[in-house]
Write a structure and sequence with these properties.
There is one protein chain. The chain is 19% helix and 27% strand. A hairpin with a 3-residue loop joins strand 1 and strand 2. The chain has a single domain, classed as 2-Layer Sandwich (Pseudouridine synthase), CATH 3.30.2350.10. The N terminus is likely disordered. By secondary structure, the protein is of the alpha+beta class. Strands 1, 2, 3, 4, 5, 6, 9, 10, 11 and 12 form a 10-stranded mixed beta sheet that branches. Strands 7-8 form a two-stranded antiparallel sheet.
Protein backbone atom coordinates (compact mmCIF):
# COMPACT_ATOMS: atom_id res chain seq x y z
CA UNK A 1 0.00 0.00 0.00
CA UNK A 2 1.25 3.51 -0.75
CA UNK A 3 0.02 7.06 -0.47
CA UNK A 4 -0.53 8.99 -3.65
CA UNK A 5 1.75 11.82 -4.73
CA UNK A 6 -0.77 14.17 -3.16
CA UNK A 7 1.45 14.24 -0.07
CA UNK A 8 2.15 17.91 -0.74
CA UNK A 9 -1.55 18.64 -0.16
CA UNK A 10 -2.00 20.46 3.17
CA UNK A 11 -5.02 18.29 3.98
CA UNK A 12 -4.38 14.66 4.78
CA UNK A 13 -5.99 11.96 2.65
CA UNK A 14 -8.65 9.94 4.50
CA UNK A 15 -7.53 6.60 3.03
CA UNK A 16 -4.61 4.98 1.27
CA UNK A 17 -4.49 4.39 -2.48
CA UNK A 18 -3.77 0.69 -3.10
CA UNK A 19 -1.79 -0.85 -5.93
CA UNK A 20 -5.04 -2.50 -7.13
CA UNK A 21 -8.58 -1.18 -6.80
CA UNK A 22 -11.33 -3.38 -5.32
CA UNK A 23 -13.50 -4.85 -8.10
CA UNK A 24 -17.23 -4.57 -7.37
CA UNK A 25 -18.47 -6.05 -10.66
CA UNK A 26 -16.96 -7.28 -13.91
CA UNK A 27 -18.21 -8.92 -17.12
CA UNK A 28 -17.12 -8.97 -20.77
CA UNK A 29 -18.25 -5.36 -21.28
CA UNK A 30 -17.48 -3.32 -18.19
CA UNK A 31 -15.87 -3.24 -14.80
CA UNK A 32 -16.94 -1.41 -11.64
CA UNK A 33 -14.27 -0.57 -9.07
CA UNK A 34 -14.07 1.31 -5.80
CA UNK A 35 -12.12 4.56 -6.28
CA UNK A 36 -10.63 5.89 -3.04
CA UNK A 37 -10.84 9.57 -2.20
CA UNK A 38 -7.86 11.53 -3.51
CA UNK A 39 -7.29 9.43 -6.64
CA UNK A 40 -7.62 11.10 -10.03
CA UNK A 41 -9.55 9.12 -12.65
CA UNK A 42 -7.03 10.10 -15.35
CA UNK A 43 -4.13 12.48 -15.93
CA UNK A 44 -5.09 16.10 -15.39
CA UNK A 45 -3.58 19.56 -15.18
CA UNK A 46 -5.15 19.66 -11.67
CA UNK A 47 -2.02 17.92 -10.42
CA UNK A 48 0.84 17.53 -12.85
CA UNK A 49 2.88 15.84 -10.11
CA UNK A 50 0.39 12.99 -9.60
CA UNK A 51 1.65 9.53 -10.56
CA UNK A 52 -1.38 7.35 -9.77
CA UNK A 53 -4.61 7.31 -11.79
CA UNK A 54 -7.62 5.02 -11.63
CA UNK A 55 -7.51 4.26 -15.37
CA UNK A 56 -3.88 3.22 -15.28
CA UNK A 57 -4.28 1.16 -12.10
CA UNK A 58 -7.26 -0.77 -13.50
CA UNK A 59 -5.64 -1.20 -16.92
CA UNK A 60 -2.60 -2.78 -15.31
CA UNK A 61 -4.82 -4.77 -12.96
CA UNK A 62 -6.95 -6.45 -15.67
CA UNK A 63 -4.48 -6.30 -18.56
CA UNK A 64 -6.87 -4.39 -20.84
CA UNK A 65 -7.54 -0.79 -21.81
CA UNK A 66 -10.49 0.73 -20.00
CA UNK A 67 -12.64 3.78 -20.72
CA UNK A 68 -14.44 5.76 -17.97
CA UNK A 69 -18.22 5.99 -18.34
CA UNK A 70 -18.83 8.95 -16.03
CA UNK A 71 -17.13 11.57 -13.88
CA UNK A 72 -16.07 11.00 -10.30
CA UNK A 73 -14.29 13.95 -8.75
CA UNK A 74 -10.89 13.43 -7.22
CA UNK A 75 -11.99 13.95 -3.58
CA UNK A 76 -15.11 11.79 -4.00
CA UNK A 77 -14.87 8.11 -3.09
CA UNK A 78 -17.03 5.31 -4.45
CA UNK A 79 -18.14 3.41 -7.52
CA UNK A 80 -16.40 4.09 -10.82
CA UNK A 81 -17.64 2.36 -14.00
CA UNK A 82 -15.37 1.68 -16.97
CA UNK A 83 -15.95 0.01 -20.33
CA UNK A 84 -13.54 -2.35 -22.10
CA UNK A 85 -13.73 -0.60 -25.49
CA UNK A 86 -14.71 2.72 -27.06
CA UNK A 87 -17.65 1.03 -28.83
CA UNK A 88 -18.97 -0.37 -25.55
CA UNK A 89 -18.54 3.04 -23.91
CA UNK A 90 -20.51 4.64 -26.74
CA UNK A 91 -23.42 2.30 -25.95
CA UNK A 92 -23.41 3.26 -22.27
CA UNK A 93 -22.90 7.02 -22.54
CA UNK A 94 -26.45 7.93 -23.69
CA UNK A 95 -27.84 6.03 -20.70
CA UNK A 96 -26.16 8.46 -18.31
CA UNK A 97 -27.40 11.47 -20.27
CA UNK A 98 -30.98 10.16 -20.34
CA UNK A 99 -31.11 9.27 -16.65
CA UNK A 100 -31.31 5.51 -17.22
CA UNK A 101 -28.42 5.00 -14.79
CA UNK A 102 -29.66 5.54 -11.23
CA UNK A 103 -26.93 6.69 -8.83
CA UNK A 104 -27.18 7.00 -5.06
CA UNK A 105 -24.64 8.91 -3.02
CA UNK A 106 -24.25 9.45 0.69
CA UNK A 107 -22.94 12.61 2.30
CA UNK A 108 -22.36 14.26 5.66
CA UNK A 109 -23.72 17.80 5.67
CA UNK A 110 -23.96 20.73 8.07
CA UNK A 111 -27.27 21.17 9.88
CA UNK A 112 -30.38 19.06 10.31
CA UNK A 113 -32.26 17.77 7.26
CA UNK A 114 -35.57 16.45 8.53
CA UNK A 115 -37.36 14.96 5.55
CA UNK A 116 -37.03 13.65 2.00
CA UNK A 117 -37.19 16.38 -0.60
CA UNK A 118 -36.37 17.20 -4.22
CA UNK A 119 -34.45 20.33 -5.10
CA UNK A 120 -35.16 21.70 -8.57
CA UNK A 121 -32.62 24.46 -9.05
CA UNK A 122 -30.91 25.20 -12.40
CA UNK A 123 -27.11 25.33 -12.48
CA UNK A 124 -24.80 27.04 -14.93
CA UNK A 125 -21.72 25.08 -15.96
CA UNK A 126 -18.80 25.99 -13.73
CA UNK A 127 -16.01 27.53 -15.79
CA UNK A 128 -12.54 26.14 -15.31
CA UNK A 129 -9.98 28.74 -14.22
CA UNK A 130 -7.42 27.45 -16.72
CA UNK A 131 -9.27 25.67 -19.52
CA UNK A 132 -11.99 28.35 -19.76
CA UNK A 133 -9.94 31.45 -18.91
CA UNK A 134 -10.63 32.94 -22.36
CA UNK A 135 -14.38 32.29 -22.34
CA UNK A 136 -16.20 35.35 -23.69
CA UNK A 137 -19.50 34.84 -21.88
CA UNK A 138 -20.95 33.00 -18.93
CA UNK A 139 -22.82 29.76 -19.70
CA UNK A 140 -26.59 29.60 -19.32
CA UNK A 141 -28.10 27.76 -16.36
CA UNK A 142 -29.49 24.30 -17.17
CA UNK A 143 -32.13 22.26 -15.31
CA UNK A 144 -30.76 20.36 -12.31
CA UNK A 145 -32.66 18.19 -9.83
CA UNK A 146 -31.36 16.42 -6.75
CA UNK A 147 -33.38 14.21 -4.39
CA UNK A 148 -32.12 13.83 -0.83
CA UNK A 149 -33.27 12.21 2.43
CA UNK A 150 -31.95 11.85 6.00
CA UNK A 151 -30.27 8.66 7.20
CA UNK A 152 -29.13 9.94 10.58
CA UNK A 153 -28.38 13.02 12.68
CA UNK A 154 -25.71 14.02 15.18
CA UNK A 155 -25.08 16.92 17.55
CA UNK A 156 -21.49 17.52 18.59
CA UNK A 157 -21.14 19.45 21.90
CA UNK A 158 -18.67 21.89 20.35
CA UNK A 159 -19.46 25.52 19.58
CA UNK A 160 -19.24 26.68 15.98
CA UNK A 161 -19.82 30.37 15.38
CA UNK A 162 -22.77 31.66 17.39
CA UNK A 163 -24.15 28.19 18.12
CA UNK A 164 -23.32 26.24 21.29
CA UNK A 165 -23.31 22.91 19.44
CA UNK A 166 -22.64 21.64 15.92
CA UNK A 167 -25.33 19.59 14.19
CA UNK A 168 -24.90 17.29 11.20
CA UNK A 169 -26.99 15.06 8.95
CA UNK A 170 -26.05 11.83 7.16
CA UNK A 171 -27.90 11.98 3.83
CA UNK A 172 -28.83 9.72 0.97
CA UNK A 173 -28.67 11.70 -2.28
CA UNK A 174 -29.82 10.87 -5.79
CA UNK A 175 -28.98 13.35 -8.58
CA UNK A 176 -31.59 13.28 -11.33
CA UNK A 177 -29.39 15.27 -13.71
CA UNK A 178 -25.62 15.33 -14.19
CA UNK A 179 -24.35 18.89 -13.87
CA UNK A 180 -20.75 19.42 -12.82
CA UNK A 181 -20.41 19.38 -9.01
CA UNK A 182 -24.21 19.25 -8.86
CA UNK A 183 -24.52 17.61 -5.44
CA UNK A 184 -21.97 19.88 -3.80
CA UNK A 185 -23.52 23.01 -5.32
CA UNK A 186 -27.09 21.98 -4.51
CA UNK A 187 -26.22 21.20 -0.89
CA UNK A 188 -24.54 24.60 -0.64
CA UNK A 189 -27.68 26.24 -2.07
CA UNK A 190 -29.75 24.51 0.63
CA UNK A 191 -27.40 25.83 3.34
CA UNK A 192 -26.41 22.22 4.09
CA UNK A 193 -22.89 22.16 2.63
CA UNK A 194 -20.99 18.88 2.52
CA UNK A 195 -18.26 18.53 5.11
CA UNK A 196 -14.77 18.70 3.69
CA UNK A 197 -15.87 20.66 0.61
CA UNK A 198 -13.20 23.35 0.34
CA UNK A 199 -14.97 25.11 -2.56
CA UNK A 200 -18.67 25.09 -1.64
CA UNK A 201 -18.44 24.20 2.05
CA UNK A 202 -18.25 25.86 5.46
CA UNK A 203 -14.67 26.58 6.52
CA UNK A 204 -15.40 26.55 10.25
CA UNK A 205 -17.02 23.12 10.19
CA UNK A 206 -14.36 21.80 7.81
CA UNK A 207 -11.72 22.94 10.27
CA UNK A 208 -13.57 21.28 13.16
CA UNK A 209 -13.65 17.98 11.26
CA UNK A 210 -9.93 18.18 10.46
CA UNK A 211 -9.12 18.91 14.10
CA UNK A 212 -10.90 15.67 15.01
CA UNK A 213 -9.01 13.74 12.33
CA UNK A 214 -12.10 13.38 10.13
CA UNK A 215 -10.31 14.12 6.88
CA UNK A 216 -11.50 14.48 3.30
CA UNK A 217 -14.68 15.26 1.40
CA UNK A 218 -17.64 13.43 2.95
CA UNK A 219 -19.30 12.38 -0.29
CA UNK A 220 -19.53 8.72 -1.33
CA UNK A 221 -20.83 7.25 -4.61
CA UNK A 222 -22.55 4.33 -2.88
CA UNK A 223 -24.87 2.56 -5.37
CA UNK A 224 -25.51 2.30 -9.10
CA UNK A 225 -28.47 0.62 -10.79
CA UNK A 226 -29.23 0.20 -14.50
CA UNK A 227 -30.36 -2.25 -17.16
CA UNK A 228 -27.27 -3.67 -18.85
CA UNK A 229 -27.46 -2.61 -22.54
CA UNK A 230 -25.89 -5.88 -23.74
CA UNK A 231 -27.23 -8.56 -21.37
CA UNK A 232 -30.49 -6.66 -20.67
CA UNK A 233 -30.28 -7.67 -17.00
CA UNK A 234 -30.86 -5.26 -14.14
CA UNK A 235 -27.58 -4.56 -12.35
CA UNK A 236 -27.33 -3.37 -8.75
CA UNK A 237 -23.79 -2.41 -7.75
CA UNK A 238 -22.92 -1.25 -4.26
CA UNK A 239 -19.68 -0.42 -2.47
CA UNK A 240 -19.01 -1.00 1.21
CA UNK A 241 -18.39 1.93 3.51
CA UNK A 242 -14.70 2.86 3.63
CA UNK A 243 -13.10 2.49 7.08
CA UNK A 244 -13.09 6.25 7.75
CA UNK A 245 -16.87 6.39 7.13
CA UNK A 246 -17.44 3.56 9.59
CA UNK A 247 -15.20 5.35 12.08
CA UNK A 248 -17.17 8.58 11.69
CA UNK A 249 -20.43 6.69 12.24
CA UNK A 250 -19.03 5.44 15.55
CA UNK A 251 -17.26 8.62 16.65
CA UNK A 252 -20.03 11.07 15.73
CA UNK A 253 -23.39 9.55 14.86
CA UNK A 254 -23.37 6.79 17.49
CA UNK A 255 -21.64 8.76 20.23
CA UNK A 256 -23.52 12.03 19.74
CA UNK A 257 -26.90 11.15 18.19
CA UNK A 258 -29.48 13.87 17.64
CA UNK A 259 -33.10 12.76 17.54
CA UNK A 260 -35.02 14.99 15.21
CA UNK A 261 -38.67 15.56 16.13
CA UNK A 262 -40.77 16.98 13.32
CA UNK A 263 -43.58 17.64 15.80
Amino acid sequence: MTFSSLSHNPFQLPEEIPMQLPVLYQDDYLIAVYKPAGLLVHRSWLDTQATQFALQIVRDQVGRYVYPLHRLDRPTAGILLMAFSKDIAAKFMPMFASGEVHKDYEAIVRGIVGERSLLDYPLAEELDKIADKNASQLPQAKPAQTEYWPLGHAELPVATGRYATSRYSWLGISPKTGRKHQIRRHMHHLSHPILGDTTHGDGRHNRLFRERQWFGLWLLARRVQFVHPFTHKMLHIECAYPPHWLQLKTDLFHKYPFYFNEG
